[in-house]
Design a protein that fits this description.
CATH topology of the largest domain: Rossmann fold
Distance between the termini: 67 Å
Number of strands: 9
Helix content: 25-40%
Strand content: 15-25%
Structural class: alpha/beta
CATH architecture of the largest domain: 3-Layer(aba) Sandwich
CATH class of the largest domain: Alpha Beta
Length: 262
């Protein structure tokens, strides 16, 4: 079965925004945000660092009722108040169907999620949460292994899954495994919204890709993304790229400092 929309679109209530000169609305992509439609299966949000990808995903997740630091509706905790006020100014347009599951994976705060799971399990109230992640402490695995434990154990299908840079701890081979797992979950009526820099992950067939840039937000073809083009050009002829980067005089190492360290 193919996924049906759980989340159809997000709309910025522009008239309510106090100022487009203040963060986060000053971010170029958010300054131009109006109405953004999502693919029923997989939508990618791509762009340079600082373009607003994570800020947008965080607001969507929080507006859906998920913890801004990552987790499900039942996993609310706060290490420090760091999320933006964007949530208050967006409206989610939901589909007719409700997901049985939902989860926000945020790579930069996944450690905090793992710690909260251990804290709650140590209290001994109810079922062990870690059993839903494969039964082994996420802190006793590598970062990449713990991500895979989440994807292959905690995410069970019929869900809305919002992933912020899931490739952060994954080798290329593991990223290919993620594509396979995503496809399994899509066939079990799941919908993904993913912010990523990975040309491997964003290769999922027929997905919608939005590029965030100084000019705003626009749909883009996979082969037109900078991520694909730069990676492709490098792999086709890495020596030519390295020669251009390192041997044209602009990136030569400076002379060593002869002073002795104190």
């Amino acid at each position: 079965m193919i996924a049906t929309h759980y989340l159809r679109a997000v709309q910025l209530e522009r008239a309510a925004v106090p100022s487009f000169e203040a963060y986060p609305f000053s971010l170029p992509a958010l300054r131009h945000l109006d109405y953004l439609e999502f693919h029923p299966a997989v939508t990618y949000i791509v762009g340079e660092n600082g373009s607003g990808k994570s800020t947008l995903l965080e607001a969507i997740a929080a507006a859906w009722g998920l913890n801004p630091e990552g987790g499900s509706r039942n996993m609310y905790f706060e290490t420090r108040p760091s999320h933006s006020e964007l949530k208050q100014f967006i409206h989610l347009i939901k589909g007719a169907r409700r997901p049985a599951d939902s989860f926000f994976l945020r790579a930069e705060s996944y450690f905090n999620l793992a710690t909260e799971i251990e804290r709650r399990d140590a209290e001994g109230v109810g079922e062990r949460i870690i059993d839903y992640y494969g039964g082994k402490s996420l802190h006793e695995q590598s970062h990449g292994e713990s991500f895979m434990a989440l994807l292959f154990n905690r995410l069970v299908g019929e869900g809305l899954y919002i992933l912020d840079e899931p490739e952060a701890a994954l080798s290329p081979q593991r990223q290919l495994s993620v594509l396979t797992r995503m496809h399994d979950l899509v066939r079990h009526n799941s919908q993904f919204i993913i912010a990523t820099h990975s040309p491997i992950l964003m290769a999922y067939p027929n997905a919608t890709i939005y590029n965030l840039s100084a000019g705003g937000i626009a749909k883009i073809d996979y082969y037109d993304t900078e991520h694909y083009q730069v990676t492709h050009d490098f792999l086709i002829n890495p020596q030519r790229m390295l020669d251009r980067l390192l041997d044209d005089g602009t990136a030569r190492p400076s002379k060593p400092n002869k002073r002795k360290p104190k």
